[in-house]
Structures
1.
Amino acid sequence: MSSASELTSLSRAALTQAVSKHSPAWRASQIYRWLYHHGVRSWNDMTNVPGALRTSLSNEYALHPPRLVAEQQSRDKTIKMLFELPSGNRYETVLIPDFHDDGAPRRMTVCVSSQVGCAMGCTFCATGRMGFRENLSSGDIFDQVWHCGVKAKDHYGMGVTNVVFMGMGEPLLNTASVLDAIEKMTSEDGLGLGARRITLSTVGLAGRIRSLADAGFRSRLAVSLHAATGEKRSAIMPVNRSERTDLDALVEAIVYFTDRTGGRVTYEYCMFHGHNDSLEDADALAAICARAPSKVNLIMYNPVEGLGFDRTPEPQLHAFIERLVSLGVTVTVRRSRGQDIDAACGQLAIRNKQASPS
Ligand code: SF4
């Protein structure tokens, strides 16, 4: 296998620079369109690009389609895919279709990974247990969306409408590739998705949230909160143990972000029975929400074997929601999709790793 870097890992500027060594720079926009508007992953398919330029570039860069190694479809039509990098590291992508009552497709959401594994070590997360393995390139991230778009049209008759960075990895520890992938998804000569249809979900790295705001970030921001006091958050999320990224620093950064961008933030709050689902927790969460334009997305936890967390019973969930609503908080509830195929973060990769003879 070639050790040359993948053409799709280049940003638009880097592609232009690579092309301009061999031909007029404007040829780069033809190639960009082939890669991200038409999704071709073969030099031969770039029919309006001169053969000599294709040959020169193919001597320097590789061009491969993503390697799909496993796929599972859930009873609720969620499709989970496992891809493999040349290094042998594996990462997952989930296509989450949503339908109208009459069965017509309403929305096709792709949950993408930005890294293989994750360094953040959240105690409730299967990916966190893997540790960090490798960053994905912008092409690897884009290809997850393209691949799901083809699959969604085939299976459900609608292309991708939404993208969430909620798969494996912490996107803000791979920011350049993530922002470049978003550019490939949103540009007119790429996929042409609306920027607001993309949600970047972060564990809450305060400094990097401020940098996003300064860089004119236009997509949506979600923050994994999962606890509303410093003590409880530190117990399950090591990121909270540093002064630079603790709850106080995080909330200040979110206030800065929403002031600067005019947007609002979604707090992801996974319900862990007996840990963060009391009415006092709801009060503390509401106090955080009052600081900046925001809403709360409560997530029903998919229990992971051996991690020691349980699902909140329905009556307690309802009491929690009522308390938040009474305090003026906008709340949505996400029921985990694809439970019968282990669609919680990181689980498919771990299962496959355990199943492989390595
Ligand atoms: S929850 Fe997200 S940030 Fe935390 S370990 Fe898992 S993948 Fe990383």
2.
Amino acid sequence: MLKELQILKSHGIQYVRNLRTQPVSDLFRGRPVISGNMTFEEINEIATLCPTNAIEKSKGSIDMGSCVFCKECAFRLPGKISFTNDYRIASNAREKLVIKPGCEVSIRLDESKIRREIRRLFKSSLKLRQVSAGGDNSCEMELSAAGNVNFDVGRYGIEFVASPRHADGIVITGPISQNMAEPLQLCYDAVPFPKIIILAGTDAISGGLFAGSTAIDRSFLDNYPVDLYVPGNPVHPLTFINGVLDLIRGRKE
Ligand code: SF4
């Protein structure tokens, strides 16, 4: 017994104490900040090199729902575009993921868009079914990491479950390949009301690098409202956890 206690002590504290305020490395690529004085030529240059058309050509705004956080635009225009380490970038309003030049405010959820039953039912317990709809396993691994000993999202009663019948909602990763369109629908149909939908990662939010491909079928998203968009390529566990907590509990700090 003494030996086990010594081993535990030698491991130290392994979990993240406060998931809401945990600092991350400056190297983390989170919310972008864009200078308000880019020239038309500069905007055109970075918009042309962006692999996912995430940069809007007339204004130079960056859509985090399409951005793959490759940072090529920031490398091309250092001093005019930078990526902060602000990882709290999830929102329930798609338009809030578009960062305009000169904007430095952090991303918030639109409280008026949160369905009332979500706060009423899931404040202390939320079970989610993850659907990898043509994903490349990167977001899937990060979502899995959210439940490991470090992040331990289970402390908030948030867990991934195996059956959609035991779930309160689904988390979609990947661009939704044609082959996964029907299984995704079947999974969604099996989830009881109020059927939360979370899109995790650039591919799920916009199709990412696969946007416009004939190999994907995103018609599912035309039929149902999305409760939360979680940007990232892949999504960081802290981005996912904070986005979900903002959705089910609100942001107090
Ligand atoms: S970091 Fe995002 S906006 Fe910039 S070039 Fe890469 S994908 Fe485009």
